[in-house]
Specification:
By secondary structure, this protein is α+β, with helices and mostly antiparallel strands. The chain has ten helices and 25 strands. It has two domains: about 140 residues, Sandwich (Jelly Rolls); about 220 residues, Rossmann fold (3-Layer(aba) Sandwich), CATH 3.40.50.150. Strand 14, helix 4 and strand 15 form a beta-alpha-beta unit. It is elongated, with a radius of gyration of 26 Å. The C terminus is likely disordered.
Length: about 450
C-alpha cells in the first residue's frame, strides 16, 4: 500500500542525532551503521524526546540493509523495554519499517541493533526517520473489512504478531479494549466484540473467522437447509449459517459451557435471528450428565469434556456439570425432517458425539465438518483411527480443506490429513464458489458501543 494511506509526516528526525552504542556509525548520508557481531547488541540510538500523546503515533524508518539482519525499534527509559520493533533482512532496495508508538507511552529512544545470529555483523544505510500522524485507515479502531474468500494461513492471526502495519494497529487496539462493543460482520451480521478472547481478536484483526471452512457452508447450504453447530461457542458458524439459510431453513446450535452459551444467545438476540434453536447441552454418546473443563477467558474456544486441554498453555478456571444428550435424541425432539451439514468442534469429544448420532447420519447422510486432533481425541478416550472407522462404516469419504486455496482435496485416509478441519461426506462435495453467497467487499464501519 502507498505510504500516504497511513498518514502524513509531521516531522523529520535529524539523523545526526544518532549516536554509536556498541557498533560503528559513519557520518555520511545516508548514515552507515555497522553492528558488533553479538546478536541483540545495540549499534546506534537517538533520543526522540517525543511528548506523550493521547493518540497512536507512527515512526517511519527507511533503510537499506546491505548485510545481515537489523532490528529497528523504540524503547522506554530503561533502554531495554521495547515499545515496538521491526526486523529487516538484507536486500538491494530500501525498506520501510513502521513503528507503532501507543498512546500515553513515554517513548525515549530510537535504536538500531543486530538481530543476526551470533558472530555475524550486520550493516545498514539509514535514509530517513519521520514522525507520522496516522490516517483514518491506520487508526486501528475500525475492524478489518469482512470479505469471504480463500485466505492462506488464516490461523496465523491466533496470537502471532503480524508483519502488516494495518493488522498490527488493529492488534494494538484490540489488546487495549476494555469494554465490549458491537462490530459489523459478514452478510450484514453484527457481533459483540469482547476483550481478551483469542477468537474475536483474530476476527477483528483479519475481518474473518476460519474463512476457508466458512466457504464450505457458503457452497453447501441453501435457503431450506438444516445446519447443526456442535460446539457453537459464541456463535460465529451459527450466525453465518443462519444468514445464509434464512427463514426457510433452521440452525440448531449446541453449546455446553454456560459462559459461552450466554454469549451465543446474546449474539443471536443482537441479530434478531428467528431461525436458530440454541440448546445448552453437551453432545455425548449417551444421555445423562457430564463434567466439562472450562478454559480461561482468553481461550474460551478450548472448553473440553477431558480433564486436560489440547494445548498446555490453556488454563482451567473451573469444572461445570451439564446435561448430556445424543444428537439422535435432539434431532427427534426438534422434529427435524432433514439435516444437511453438521459442524463438530468440541475439543476431542467428536468421536463420542458421532456415536450418539449414528441414526441421524444413516438417515440424512449430512456433510460433516469436523475438527480432528489426535491429542484431543486421546484425552477423551478415542483416536483418529476410531473416528475414521466409525464414519467409514456409514459410507463416508474424507477431504481436507487446503490452507491456501480452500480447495477440498480427497483423502484416502485421515492419516494423510495435514490440517485439523476435515470434511466427511457420503456424496461428492460442491465446488468452491458454487453456492448462493456473495461476499460484501465494502469496508466495515466504525464499531459502536454495545449495551451490556
Amino acid at each position: 500500500m502507498a505510504d500516504t494511506l497511513w498518514g502524513d509526516a509531521v516531522a523529520s528526525i535529524d539523523l545526526s542525532r544518532l549516536s554509536p552504542c556498541n557498533g560503528i556509525l559513519h557520518n555520511d548520508r545516508p548514515r552507515t551503521v555497522i553492528t558488533a557481531p553479538e546478536q541483540w547488541s545495540y549499534a546506534a540510538a537517538a533520543d526522540l524526546n517525543l511528548p506523550t500523546s493521547r493518540e497512536v503515533i507512527l515512526l517511519k524508518a527507511e533503510a537499506t540493509i546491505t548485510s545481515g539482519r537489523i532490528g529497528v525499534g523504540c524503547v522506554l527509559d530503561d533502554f531495554s523495554t521495547f515499545v515496538d520493533e521491526v526486523e529487516l533482512a538484507a536486500g538491494a532496495a530500501p525498506q520501510v519499517a513502521w513503528l507503532i508508538l501507543p498512546p500515553d507511552m513515554p517513548v525515549k529512544s530510537f535504536v538500531v541493533r543486530n538481530v543476526a545470529a551470533n558472530g555475524v555483523r550486520s550493516e545498514a544505510l539509514l535514509h530517513s526517520l519521520e514522525i507520522v500522524r496516522p490516517s483514518l485507515e491506520a487508526r486501528g479502531d475500525v475492524p478489518a473489512p469482512a470479505v469471504l474468500r480463500p485466505t492462506p494461513n488464516w490461523a496465523r492471526h491466533y496470537g502471532r504478531r503480524s508483519d502488516r502495519l494495518d493488522e498490527r494497529l488493529r492488534q494494538l487496539w484490540y489488546d487495549n479494549l476494555k469494554a465490549p462493543c458491537v462490530i459489523p460482520w459478514l452478510n450484514n451480521l453484527k457481533l459483540n466484540l469482547l476483550p481478551r478472547n483469542e477468537m474475536l481478536r483474530a476476527l477483528y484483526v483479519s475481518g474473518l473467522y476460519e474463512p476457508n471452512s466458512l466457504l464450505l457452508l457458503a457452497d453447501a447450504l441453501t435457503p431450506s437447509s438444516v445446519f447443526v453447530d456442535v460446539g457453537a461457542n459464541i456463535g460465529l458458524y451459527t450466525l453465518f449459517a443462519a444468514s445464509l439459510i434464512g427463514n426457510g431453513g433452521k440452525v440448531m446450535a449446541i453449546e455446553a459451557s454456560s459462559r459461552e452459551f450466554k454469549r451465543l444467545t446474546d449474539n443471536i438476540t443482537l441479530n434478531g435471528l428467528k431461525n436458530i434453536r440454541a440448546r445448552h447441552v453437551a453432545l455425548y454418546d449417551r444421555p445423562g450428565t457430564v463434567e466439562i473443563s472450562i478454559a480461561d477467558e482468553q481461550h474460551g474456544g478450548h472448553n473440553t469434556l477431558a480433564q486436560a486441554f489440547v494445548y498446555d498453555s490453556v488454563a482451567k478456571i473451573m469444572t461445570e456439570t451439564v446435561v448430556a444428550e445424543t444428537l439422535d435424541r435432539l434431532v427427534e425432539s426438534e422434529r427435524l425432517d432433514r439435516v444437511d451439514l453438521i459442524k463438530l468442534d468440541i475439543e476431542g469429544g467428536e468421536l463420542k458425539a458421532l456415536k450418539g448420532a449414528r441414526e441421524t447420519l444413516k438417515r440424512f447422510q449430512p456433510v460433516l465438518l469436523i475438527e480432528v486432533i489426535e491429542r484431543g481425541l486421546a484425552l477423551n478416550g478415542g483416536s483418529v483411527a476410531e473416528l475414521e472407522a466409525e464414519l467409514v462404516a456409514l459410507g463416508y469419504r474424507f477431504w481436507q480443506i487446503d490452507d491456501v486455496t480452500a480447495a477440498r482435496r480427497p483423502l484416502s485416509s485421515l492419516a494423510e490429513a495435514q490440517s485439523e478441519n476435515i470434511v466427511a461426506s457420503v456424496r461428492d462435495l460442491p465446488k468452491i464458489g458454487s453456492g448462493q453467497f456473495v461476499a460484501d467487499s465494502r469496508r466495515t464501519p466504525e464499531p459502536t458501543l454495545a449495551a451490556h
